[in-house]
Task: inverse folding
């Protein structure tokens, strides 16, 4: 077994020298029954010493990973993020190599890493590019992430680490990944001026015929697109355009993560809503007098869920 205190494996990266990051905002089935058949017994006459049927989904299944008690309070967000339906829509399979761009604090890592580790797959976390702007908050987030998921290799497997940022190199070996995920991160990359690079890097690492899955806060189509997406909302047409320019083919859209109660009109952008629940502008102290009632009633944001394919 690997030593959980050893340094995480890291993919080769290009030089990290380059301009400082601009405007980055940090965020944080059926029950399977395994039983031996005894042809001498009927269903109404079970062996008296038969072991009890296992409870919960079969270990290693996606439902098992989503129901995992290691996820703790994070499971409360399943009501809004619909991880089972979302990952099935993205055609997630057990033995895949999955690259997750900017996994943040690891909400999806807690699902994907155990699932892939149990099934012979590979999970690559393409984290913030190190050494840009000497941002201690970013460095602390990456360190906490690697410590958290490196401390239990029996559960999470051997996660591989890569970087994504303005001057980062490839996030993995070209034509090697089966699925790339952009999970509500595109607005950050627009603010930093690296959205086009994200699509290009995803296209390079994906094998022909593989999938790019995108979940993103959705701007109303009648609204003008802010080039830096300061509110956190992005037009679906704009996302499709970026993907097409990178060479991707649009496959399908899903309303899995839609929320018609979200009018996108919030004083502090999308982060006014749960889970961030800002009561003051980003970076300022919370305002104890701010009335959160209407925003908490909305719930999490209205989000598009899009699937693209790299051509064969």
Result:
């Amino acid at each position: 077994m690997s030593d959980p205190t050893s340094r995480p494996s890291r993919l080769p990266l290009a030089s990290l020298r380059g301009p400082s990051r601009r405007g980055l905002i940090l965020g944080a089935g059926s029950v399977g029954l395994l039983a031996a058949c005894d042809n001498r017994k009927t269903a109404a006459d079970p062996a008296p010493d038969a072991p009890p049927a296992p409870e919960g989904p079969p270990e290693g299944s996606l439902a098992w990973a989503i129901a995992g008690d290691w996820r703790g309070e994070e499971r409360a967000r399943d009501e809004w993020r619909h991880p089972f339906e979302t990952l099935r829509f993205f055609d997630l399979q057990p033995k895949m190599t999955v690259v997750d761009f900017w996994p943040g604090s690891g909400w999806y890592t807690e699902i994907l890493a155990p699932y892939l580790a149990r099934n012979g797959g590979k999970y690559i976390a393409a984290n913030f590019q190190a050494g840009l702007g000497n941002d201690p908050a970013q460095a602390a987030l990456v360190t906490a992430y690697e410590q958290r998921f490196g401390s239990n290799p029996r559960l999470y497997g051997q996660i591989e680490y890569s970087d994504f940022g303005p001057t980062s190199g490839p996030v993995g070996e070209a034509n090697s990944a089966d699925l790339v995920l952009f999970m509500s991160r595109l607005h950050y990359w627009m603010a930093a001026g690296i959205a086009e690079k994200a699509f290009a890097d995803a296209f390079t690492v994906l094998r022909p015929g593989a999938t790019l899955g995108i979940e993103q806060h959705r701007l109303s189509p009648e609204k003008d697109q802010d080039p830096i997406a300061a509110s956190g909302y992005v037009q679906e047409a704009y996302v499709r355009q970026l993907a097409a320019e990178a060479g991707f083919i649009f496959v399908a859209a899903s309303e899995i993560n839609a929320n018609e109660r979200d009018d996108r009109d919030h004083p502090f952008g999308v982060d006014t809503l749960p889970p961030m629940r800002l009561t003051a502008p980003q970076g300022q102290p919370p305002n104890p007098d701010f009335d959160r009632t209407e925003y908490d009633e909305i719930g999490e944001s209205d989000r598009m869920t899009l699937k693209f394919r790299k051509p064969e």
